[in-house]
Amino acid sequence: MDIQIKEATTGKDRSLFLKLPYSLHSRHELWVPPLRMREKKYIDPGKNIHIHYSDTVCYLAFADGRPVGRIMGIINRKLNEIWNDPHARFCSFECINNREAAAALLGEVESWSKARNMERLVGPLGFSNQDPQGFLIEGFDQRSSIGTIYNYEYIPTLMDECGYTKEVDYVTYNIPIPETIPPLYEKIQDRVKNRTAVKMLEFTSKKEARPWLSTILSFMNETYSGIYGFLPLSEEIIRKTARTYYEIMDPNFLKVIVDEKGNIVSFIFGIKDITGGFQKANGKLLPFGYFQIKSTQKKSKRLDLLLGAIKKEYRGKGLNTLMAIAMIKSAHHAGISYADSHHELESNNMVQAEMKRLGGSIYKRHRVYRKLLGS
Predict the structure, then answer these.
(1) Do 48 and 42 touch, CB atoms closer than 8 A?
(2) Cβ pair 359, 175 in contact under 8 A
(3) What is the pLDDT of residues 210-269, one digit of tens each?
(4) Does residue 132 sit in the same domain as residue 194?
(5) Taking a C-beta distance cutoff of 8 angstroms, is the pair 88, 137 a contact?
(6) Strand 165-176 and strand 361-372: pairing?
(7) β-strands 66-76, 87-95: how paired?
(8) pLDDT tens-digit profile of 331-354?
(9) Cis peptide before 287 (omega within 30 of 0)
(10) Which of 305, 340, 343 is nearest to 170 (CA)?
(11) Same domain, 69 and 100
(12) Do 89 and 205 share a domain, yes or no?
C-alpha cells in the first residue's frame, strides 16, 4: 500500500482529521463516539489553553486518495519543565490495520519530535492527565467509560511492530456493589469516628454540591503532584472542568471529608455511566444528543468513579473506608449494580488493595507506549 502523509493545516484537512474516527469505528459496537464539538476545540489554539504553551502538529495518512489514519503530536513545554523530562507525546491516533500506515504516522511524529530535541515519544497521552491515556490492551469485550480510549484489537500489535514498548499500564476494576456493608468496614468506621476529628459532607442537590467541584479540583493540585505526568490545573482549567462536571453530575455521588476547621482532606467523585447516551448521540449534542445522554444516564446500572484523593497526612487512617461506605449506600439507593474504577496506575498498590477488599477485579487494562528517539 502506497501511504502519503500530509500535515493537516487547512480547514478541509482539519475537517477530515476530526471526522476520521467516526468512519473508522462506524461498525465498532463498543466504541463510544466523543463529542464532536469537544474534539474540534481540542485542536483549536483559540479554544484549548494548553496549546498556548505547547508545540503541536496534526498529520493525516492517505492511501489511494482516501484518509486511512491520523495522529497528533504534542510537546507540552510547561509539563516538561515541571518534570524535567524532555519528551513528546502523541494522541488522537487512529489507523486502519496496516503496518505501513501506522509506521508512517508514528515516524512523522518521531521526526518532528527529534527536530525539537526530544528524547523519547510516549503515548497515547494528551496535554494533561485530564485527557484520555493509553491504548486498550485487555477488556475488548467491555464498553469504555467516559474519557478513556477504546481501540481496535490490532492497535497494540501495530505498536509492537513499530518498535514501541511499555511506558506504563493503567488498570480498571469492576467492583460489585455489596448487598450489605462489610462487617470489617463497619468496625473501621467506628474506629475512625472515635479517633479522628473529621466530618463527611454529602449532598442532595446540584446547587448544594456545585461550590465543591472547584474545591476538589484545586485539591488535586496538592494530592496528585507526584502522579505520573500530572500537570497542575490552572484556575481557568479548574473553572471549565467544574462546569463540565456540573452538567453530568449526580450530587449523591460526591463525597467530601473535611477536618475540624472545614478544610477538605479527602473526596471521591463519580457519575452514573453516560457512554450509552454518547453512542446514541454519535458525538452530537444537538438536536437530541443532550437528552439521549441524560435519559440513558438515569437508567444506568454502572457507576464510574472519576476522581478521588486523600491528603497525605490522612492516608492510612480509614477515610477511604468512610467514603466507600457512603458510596455503597448511595449506589444501593440509585439501583447501581457495579462500579467502574476508571484508570488506576498499576503501581498504585494502596488503592488497588481497597478495590480488591470490596471484591473488585481488573477487567480493563490500558497501556502507554514509548520509543526512544536516537540522534
Answers:
(1) yes
(2) yes
(3) 999 999 999 999 999 888 889 999 999 999 999 999 988 999 999 999 999 999 999 999
(4) no
(5) no
(6) antiparallel
(7) antiparallel
(8) 999 999 999 999 999 998 888 988
(9) yes
(10) 343
(11) yes
(12) no
